[in-house]
Specification:
OB fold (Dihydrolipoamide Acetyltransferase, E2P), 6 strands, about 220 residues, elongated, 6-stranded mixed β-sheet, single chain, alpha+beta
Length: about 220
């Protein structure tokens, strides 16, 4: 598993160097298979390796995240320094990060990653990096902790993000209710949004926010 993690690390952190190596591996493999079978049809596999080399540029961090989430062990990390680079991705600057990983056995491992190589789970289109100085949850394969995946939803910054996202339906329903308090559909939607948020975040949201939402819910028990 350590070897697999190292290969995945190279594909993720060096995607441009990986492309010619993937193609070269495809050429070598198809040559061996063609000689072994006596058929030149195997040479068509070179095209598949060529295409995968291109796909790897954009998907290596996804496969890396899935691998480490499934087979890794839990640790923590903290970003110690962040630096804006001269490179861009989708017109956004690429940032480089220095980090220290605390392994399950208490060792500190210094590592470095950037916006393009960051592996984050769950898989989303948004590259959401933890703030500098805040400890967050990671997973890694023992024996090679430099290759890690950020466990967003298990980290404080990720939990705050989820709470903010789940507050949006409540605020939308509250605005509708304020616009028309006698609308029975708006009252029902507001009540359901409050109940859903309270049930989902009673253990991790700010207690003051939960008390506030409970008070709003109690005020709605009569109407509708």
């Amino acid at each position: 598993m350590v070897l697999l993690s190292k290969i995945s690390y190279f594909l993720t952190y060096h995607p441009f160097w990986s492309w010619p190596l993937i193609v070269a591996a495809g050429v070598l493999l198809t040559h061996i298979l063609a000689r072994w079978s006596g058929s030149r049809r195997w040479h068509a596999l070179i095209l598949l390796f060529f295409i995968y080399g291109q796909i790897n540029l954009f998907t290596a961090h996804i496969f890396n995240a899935l691998l480490l989430e499934a087979f890794g062990v839990d640790g923590t990390a903290v970003i110690t320094q962040s630096e804006e680079t001269s490179s861009t991705l989708n017109d956004q600057s690429i940032w480089a990060y220095d980090a220290v990983i605390r392994t399950a056995d208490g060792r500190d491992v210094v590592t470095r990653f950037d916006t393009m190589s960051a592996s984050i789970y769950p898989i989303t289109n948004t590259i959401f990096i933890p703030p500098q100085g805040e400890r967050f949850a990671v997973r890694y394969i023992p024996g090679f902790p430099r290759n890690f995946v950020i466990m967003r939803d298990l980290s404080p910054y990720g939990k705050s993000y989820l709470i903010d996202e789940d507050r949006r339906p409540v605020e939308k329903a509250a605005a509708q209710f304020a616009a028309s308090p006698d609308n029975r559909a708006f009252v029902a939607e507001y009540r359901d949004a409050l109940m859903t948020f309270i049930d989902r975040h009673r253990g991790d949201a700010d207690p003051a926010l939960i008390r506030n939402y409970r008070a709003q819910l109690d005020a709605l028990q009569g109407p509708g």
